[in-house]
Each structure stands twice: as structure tokens, then as C-alpha cells.
Design goal:
This protein is an alpha/beta fold. It has helices spanning 9-15, 42-52, 74-86, 98-109, 124-133, 175-185, 239-252, 258-269, 271-289, 302-307, 311-320, 335-345, 375-381, 397-423; strands spanning 91-95, 116-119, 141-144, 159-163, 193-197, 215-219, 233-237, 296-298, 327-331, 350-351, 361-363, 387-391. Helix 6 (175-185) links the parallel strand 4 and strand 5 (193-197). Bound molecules: pyridoxal-5'-phosphate.
């Protein structure tokens, strides 16, 4: 059975991109390791190559014809059709890492005439490209304090870039505020591209393209891969914005390899089941955390934001997210020593960077994922020494809560000991 537009996303995504009838009835796709593909004849080969290079007057090549695996590969194509199905859009491109996806999208849609405007905080790798690499090729980079500043800006950029919720404090940005502004300020020749890094939620919870964004970016290492066994990235969107992304991927050569593509295609079959369960457990963990005194909670859930009086963020979440996702951060009283005591006492949670996997992970942003961020920027973004980020996996939620409870107790004792040492 091939996907049918009348079927719902979960049904379509399982079958997308692969027809068993063309593969001996094999229920799962093979891994095509070939680097090159034999042309049926020279005329067809020329049509394929000339079309790939965008040469005017090229003959139309056959559909789904492959040339060379840097440009496209059947296994990569299965994964890409599945992601395009999940994101309900024209095209998706997989890359060898989230950073390959982000850097290619940035290079494709900014230049010396097309500025980049962005709102932070951003993942450290993205911030590095924006601060240290893009300006060297002449791109004007402007940091906005908030998307609300768009109305006071002069001119227009080539791209508006954001990450929502942002790493690691789960700060949210209003996607449709940017997409409406971009639509009003775009012209026929100069379309402003709105790009959203949707790594923290993924297609099941947040759908930037439905809100008018042009490019939806992911570190597919996280929820899309979902098992901490693959490093990959993705960009999805409508054909107009994706054409340049594919062109730049072809020449930079950052595509995902066939084995990675196969793992991604397989992982996407269970994406919704994994994410729904992770979210269910995350809510239980957050409910437990809310019972703890002296614990500052960072969450992208509407109810948690409303509880601390952040009604503006709560309204954004309500508008653009299905729920608050399975990531959170807590600020442990007692700074780095208490945070390290907490992390070293965890048993079910594993102490590692990354997120979105089957196993729950915990890390210390100030010294790990965000070690390279300047002290001023850390302070501005709320990345304190006591902050710990938690990614909820598929373990039993009671075991996760018991693990946190035990580790919080150890952290409290370490703070008490330190305080009494200072007093004595
Ligand atoms: C929000 C976000 N974007 C992008 C990346 C980069 O992805 P990758 O590590 O797959 O290159 C990460 C990595 O942690 C991330 O958290």
C-alpha cells in the first residue's frame, strides 16, 4: 500500500517514500550504498545532469532518477519523503548533522545583500557560525532583543532566524509574529525567509511551516533520530525556499549517508509514539518538581509559565505548540557544587549532552553545552551555575521522579555542608 492523501499523518509517514512492490515485496527499504548510478543511455544521462545543474532547455529527466549519492540517493530519499510527510510540506533534506543543515540553510539564504536578523538565545554552534563565520563573508548580522523589535527596524533582511523553545532555558518566540512581518515586508524579488530551529519539539508538537515559516530546521540527532545512535540534521519547507538549500547541499556536500538515512527513516515510524510517551512522563516529572520548594523551573508548558506569571510566553505556547514537550531545566540552589552533586547522584538519568532520546539525559549547560558562551550572555540568558537541563526519555516516570528526588536530597545536603563550613 502506498501513502494516500486521505490518510492521516501517522499512516502516511509509515509508508512514505517506499514501495515494497518495487523491492521484491520487502516490507522495509534496503540500504543503497552505491555512490553512483548507471544512466539508461547517454541522452537520459545528459538530461539528468543538465537538469541537476539547472541548465536552461534541458530535457525533462525521468522522475526519481539518481545520478550520484552526493546529489541524492534512494535511501536518503525514503527518509526525506517521510520527513516531508510528517511536516506536511513539499520537500525535506537530510544532512550529516544539525550544524550541516543550519550552516547550509544560512549560506543559501544570506549574502552581502541579504542580512541575517535573529533572536537569541541560540544553540552554541549556531551562535558561533553567526558571530564568527557568516560576517567574514560579508553578511550583515543583526541581533534583535525580541521579535517585537521588528517593527522598529529599518530595511529588511534576507532571513529572520530563531530557535523556539531555545536551548537551554526553553525561552519561546512567537513564530507568527515573524512570519506576518516577513510577509508584509517581502517583495516579489526579495522574499524574506523565516527559519525556525524546531529541534526541541519536532514535528509532532510544533509546526512552524503551518504558521508561515519558510524553513523548518532540526538537529535530527535529537527526537527525529531519537535513539542516541545517529548524528544528522534536516531542513524542510516549500519548494521555493528549499531549491537553494538543495543546491547548496549539493556543492557543500553535507548530505546524510545511506546508513544514517536508513536509521532516520526507521526512527520516523515511531516518532509520534516516542514523543507522546516522553511528553506524558515529562508532565509527571514537572508536576513533581512543582511540589519542591526553592526550585526554579524552566519549562515550555503553558501551565508552568502561567504559574510564574509569564502570561506572554504562556500565550505563545498556547498558540503554537501542541504541548510543552519533554525538555526542562531546573535551577538547583547552591550553584555549581550543588548542581554537580545532583548530577553525580543520578542513576536512571545519564549524565550526557544531547536530548530527545529513548534514555533520559541530564547535563550542566554552564560548563557543558554552553561552556563557550560569554559570562555576560550566560547571565542574560539565565544560564546560571545551578542550572541543570533534563531530557525525558522512555523509562518509567516513577523511576525518573525517584531518581530526581534522591539527587535533590544529595544536592540539599551538599549545600547544607557548604553553608556550615562557611559559618564555622
Ligand atoms: C537546538 C539545536 N540546534 C542545533 C543543534 C546542532 O545539531 P547537531 O549536533 O546534530 O549538529 C543542536 C545540538 O545540540 C541543538 O540543540
Amino acid at each position: 500500500m502506498m501513502p494516500n492523501k486521505n490518510h492521516r499523518l501517522e499512516t502516511r509517514s509509515i509508508f512514505a517514500g517506499y514501495d515494497p512492490a518495487e523491492n521484491f515485496g520487502a516490507v522495509k527499504p534496503p540500504i543503497h550504498l552505491a555512490s553512483t548510478f548507471i544512466f539508461p543511455d547517454a541522452r537520459t544521462g545528459a538530461a539528468q545532469m543538465e537538469t541537476a545543474y539547472g541548465i536552461e532547455g534541458a530535457e525533462t529527466p525521468p522522475e526519481d532518477a539518481f545520478i550520484y549519492s552526493r546529489l541524492g540517493n534512494p535511501t536518503l530519499s525514503v527518509a526525506e519523503k517521510r520527513l516531508a510527510t510528517w511536516d506536511d510540506t513539499d520537500l525535506a533534506a537530510f544532512f550529516s548533522s544539525g550544524m550541516a543543515a543550519i550552516s547550509t540553510a544560512l549560506m543559501a539564504h544570506t549574502s552581502k545583500d541579504k542580512a541575517l536578523w535573529y533572536v537569541g538565545p541560540l544553540y552554541g554552534g549556531t551562535q558561533h557560525i553567526i558571530d564568527d563565520i557568516i560576517p567574514k563573508i560579508g553578511v550583515d548580522v543583526v541581533k534583535l532583543n525580541s521579535l517585537e523589535d521588528l517593527d522598529s527596524m529599518n530595511g529588511a533582511p534576507g532571513m529572520i532566524y530563531m530557535e523556539t523553545p531555545a536551548n537551554p532555558t526553553l525561552q519561546v518566540h512567537d513564530i507568527s509574529l515573524a512570519t506576518k512581518w516577513a510577509k508584509e515586508h517581502s517583495t516579489e524579488e526579495d522574499k524574506i525567509i523565516v527559519a525556525v530551529d524546531n529541534t526541541f519539539l519536532g514535528p509532532i508538537i510544533q509546526r512552524p511551516l503551518d504558521l508561515g515559516a519558510d524553513l523548518n530546521l532540526y538537529s535530527a540527532t535529537k527526537y527525529i533520530g531519537g535513539h542516541s545512535d545517529v548524528v544528522a540534521g534536516a531542513v524542510s519547507g516549500k519548494e521555493e525556499a528549499m531549491a537553494k538549500v538543495f543546491e547548496y547541499r549539493t556543492f557543500f556536500g553535507g548530505m546524510a549517508d545511506p546508513w544514517t538515512s536508513w536509521l532516520l527513516a526507521r526512527s520516523m515510524e515511531t516518532l509520534h509514539v516516542r514523543v507522546d510517551r516522553q511528553v506524558e512522563s515529562a508532565r509527571k516529572v514537572l508536576d513533581y518538581l512543582q511540589t519542591q520548594n526553592n526550585l526554579k523551573i524552566f519549562s515550555a508548558w503553558e501551565e508552568d509559565l502561567a504559574k510564574v506569571g509569564d502570561y506572554k510566553s504562556a500565550a505563545i505556547v498556547q498558540k503554537q505548540q501542541k504541548n510543552g514537550g519533554a525538555l526542562m531545566a531546573i535551577e538547583i540552589p547552591g550553584g555549581r557544587n550543588a548542581a554537580f552533586a545532583f548530577l553525580d547522584s543520578l542513576d536512571v538519568f545519564k549524565l550526557a549532552v544531547s536530548l530527545g532520546s529513548t534514555e533520559s539525559l541530564a547535563e550542566h549547560p554552564a560548563s557543558m553545552t554552553h561552556a563557550g558562551v560569554s559570562p555576560e550572555e550566560k547571565e542574560r540568558a539565565g544560564i546560571t551555575e545551578g542550572l541543570v537541563r533534563l531530557s525525558i526519555g522512555l523509562e518509567n516516570s516513577d523511576d525518573l521522579i525517584a531518581d530526581i528526588e534522591k539527587a535533590l536530597e544529595v544536592a540539599r545536603l551538599s549545600l547544607k555542608e557548604e553553608t556550615s563550613k562557611c559559618l564555622s
